[in-house]
Specification:
The chain has 70 residues and is mainly alpha-helical. 67% of the residues lie in helices and 0% in strands. Helix 1 packs across helix 2.
């Protein structure tokens, strides 16, 4: 029997416009709403990310973060 999909947490999230557009595109392509898409991505985080690519992209994002906040 499949697990029931319950959204148990709601929290305010600040996202870049680029990140939100990508989330909406992914959700639309997958037939999900944005909350369901985020739940899917985080429930399956290890299998949908490549560890080396993630570390590299995170370093690039962090290096650029302060400039993007201004």
């Amino acid at each position: 029997m499949p697990k029931r999909f319950r959204l148990t947490r709601r929290f305010p999230v600040a996202m870049t416009e680029e990140g939100y557009r990508r989330l909406k595109r992914f959700a639309g392509e997958a037939g999900l709403d944005e909350g369901e898409a985020l739940s899917f991505l985080f429930e399956h985080f290890d299998s949908v990310t490549h560890h080396d690519n993630l570390a590299h992209r995170l370093r690039l994002f962090n290096a650029d973060l302060e400039a993007r906040k201004k």
